[in-house]
């Protein structure tokens, strides 16, 4: 919905021609000036396919592709039952070929296919199991295209599914290998924002999804609209990912408003800048002050006068204030794509993308929950019964621990001792993308 409103769409085009220059990135108009999404909706449970647009953790949406309303979403028959193995090896494997047929068809119809955007949850069975299966299949067929995912991390505060740590760890094991950019949207952070910042006593999935949609809309603004400094998927990856495995981003958004509320006053540029780097505005439950930024992207959908206020001096001041939280051996880590089309209802906003070593806190939390169950082999029979082997769990756990160690290594590295960078990496080579 935020994407449609940004273009001035209510089923039919009502926006300015300038705003709609790149509208075919996410929407297509077959006939009659009536737009439909360019997406594929997939779910293994037939009873929830009709709400796939609004319920983030009931499946996933594959962007930059076309979904014809007449053909409907791709739906399984029995569901994955919160079991990663069913989504990856059995139920999902039966459906994935038909999904790939649509992917091939729509990819061939693109003038210049840049990449794929996939939104999925890592806590259930479909988004985690079949989602990572689809990612690996697309990677095999389109190895030179960018794979970008919005991955919703599980939290006990939002869901009571006990096997979520298993599903998330097995999924991260796949995402490390097969994606170029992964935005980590943490259910725990979303819940804390709703409860502490927005003062919602009982946040619903709709409240959480409102934050997700605002962040995703901000991240893709410079893809969808013209601007002074634009960033596409490949430019973002080149500037944000210094090492292939370290492509897990911490997104943030400012200003934060609850669903249906109105902003009380327009924020100034310094206020937006301060909120943008505030841990309370991060969509991942990690404190950036506990780590160091490798790179940072600030998407600024502002009006022309606001863009004039944000000049190189402001960027320099921003870097100076937060210099202690940046690694010293990467110069000019701040990327600033700009666009003069602000989100609907806001005069100015700022979307933050941080590649920070503090993201290891999220992986540590999931890893601790995983280890507590796996050491006792709890619930393991549900996965081995679908054809999995215990060694896959061991490898996934080892890969996540190696990822945490790698983040910590680059956090501790200094420019005065560059030969230590990568010194302890030989044991990680067998996991790296070549």
TrEMBL record:
The answer on whether this UniProt entry bears the keyword Transferase reads: no
Query: What does the record list as coiled-coil region(s)?
Result: none
SMART domains from the UniProt entry: Tubulin, Tubulin_C
Query: Which cell locations does it reside in?
Result: Cytoplasm, Cytoskeleton
Family to which the UniProt record says this protein belongs: Belongs to the tubulin family.
The GO cellular component terms are:
intercellular bridge; microtubule; mitotic spindle
Q: How does it associate, per the subunit comment?
A: Dimer of alpha and beta chains. A typical microtubule is a hollow water-filled tube with an outer diameter of 25 nm and an inner diameter of 15 nM. Alpha-beta heterodimers associate head-to-tail to form protofilaments running lengthwise along the microtubule wall with the beta-tubulin subunit facing the microtubule plus end conferring a structural polarity. Microtubules usually have 13 protofilaments but different protofilament numbers can be found in some organisms and specialized cells.
Q: Name one GO molecular function term.
A: GTP binding
Q: Name one GO biological process term.
A: microtubule-based process
Q: What is this protein called?
A: Tubulin beta chain
Q: Which UniProt keyword terms apply here?
A: Cytoplasm, Cytoskeleton, GTP-binding, Magnesium, Metal-binding, Microtubule, Nucleotide-binding
What cofactor does this protein call for? Mg(2+)
Q: Where are the transmembrane segments?
A: none
The UniProt function text for this chain reads: Tubulin is the major constituent of microtubules, a cylinder consisting of laterally associated linear protofilaments composed of alpha- and beta-tubulin heterodimers. Microtubules grow by the addition of GTP-tubulin dimers to the microtubule end, where a stabilizing cap forms. Below the cap, tubulin dimers are in GDP-bound state, owing to GTPase activity of alpha-tubulin.
- Keyword field contains Metal-binding: yes
Q: Which PANTHER family match?
A: TUBULIN
Any Pfam family: Tubulin_C
Q: Which InterPro entries match?
A: Beta_tubulin (IPR002453), Tub_FtsZ_C (IPR008280), Tubulin (IPR000217), Tubulin/FtsZ-like_C (IPR037103), Tubulin/FtsZ_2-layer-sand-dom (IPR018316), Tubulin/FtsZ_GTPase_sf (IPR036525), Tubulin_C (IPR023123), Tubulin_CS (IPR017975)
- Domain named Tubulin/FtsZ 2-layer sandwich is located at 229-368
Its source organism is Coturnix japonica (Japanese quail)
The record, for Gene3D superfamilies, names: Helix hairpin bin, Tubulin/FtsZ, C-terminal domain, Tubulin/FtsZ, GTPase domain
Residues annotated as domain Tubulin/FtsZ GTPase: 24-227
């Amino acid at each position: 919905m935020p994407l449609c409103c940004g273009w001035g769409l209510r089923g039919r085009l009502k926006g300015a021609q300038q705003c709609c220059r790149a509208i075919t990135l996410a929407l297509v108009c077959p006939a009659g000036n009536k737009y439909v999404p360019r997406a594929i909706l997939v779910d293994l449970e037939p009873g929830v396919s009709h709400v796939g647009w609004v319920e983030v953790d009931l499946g996933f949406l594959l962007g930059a592709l076309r979904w014809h309303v007449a053909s409907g979403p791709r739906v399984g028959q029995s569901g994955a039952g919160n079991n990663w193995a069913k989504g990856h090896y059995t139920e999902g494997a039966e459906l994935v070929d038909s999904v790939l047929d649509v992917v091939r068809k729509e990819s061939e119809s693109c003038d210049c296919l840049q990449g794929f955007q996939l939104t999925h949850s890592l806590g259930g069975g479909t988004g985690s199991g079949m989602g990572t299966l689809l990612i690996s299949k697309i990677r095999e067929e389109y190895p030179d295209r960018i794979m970008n995912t919005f991955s919703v991390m599980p939290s006990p505060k939002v869901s009571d599914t006990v096997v979520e740590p298993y599903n998330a760890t097995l999924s991260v094991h796949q995402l490390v290998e097969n994606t170029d950019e992964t935005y980590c949207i943490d259910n725990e952070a979303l819940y804390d924002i709703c409860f502490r910042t927005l003062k919602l006593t009982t946040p619903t999935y709709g409240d959480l999804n409102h934050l997700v949609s605002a962040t995703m809309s901000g991240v893709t603004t410079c893809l969808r609209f013209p601007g002074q400094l634009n960033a596409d998927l490949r430019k973002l990856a080149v500037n944000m990912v210094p090492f292939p495995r370290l492509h897990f981003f911490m997104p943030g958004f400012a200003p934060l408003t609850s669903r249906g509320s109105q902003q009380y006053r327009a924020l100034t540029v310094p206020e937006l800048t301060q909120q943008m780097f505030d841990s309370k505005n991060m969509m991942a439950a990690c404190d950036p002050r506990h780590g160091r930024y490798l790179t940072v992207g600030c998407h600024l959908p502002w009006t022309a006068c606001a863009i004039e206020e944000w000049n190189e001096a402001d960027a320099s001041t921003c870097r100076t204030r937060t210099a202690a939280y940046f690694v010293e051996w990467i110069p000019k880590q701040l990327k600033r794509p700009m666009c003069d089309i602000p989100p609907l209802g806001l005069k100015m906003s700022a979307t933050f993308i941080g590649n920070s070593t503090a993201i290891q806190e999220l992986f540590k939390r999931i890893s601790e929950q995983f280890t507590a169950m796996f050491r006792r082999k709890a619930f393991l029979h549900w996965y081995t019964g679908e054809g999995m082997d215990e060694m896959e769990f061991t490898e996934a756990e080892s890969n996540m621990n190696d990822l945490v160690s790698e983040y910590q290594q680059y956090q501790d590295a200094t420019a005065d001792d560059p030969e230590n960078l990568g010194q302890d990496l030989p044991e990680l080579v067998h996991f790296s993308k070549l």
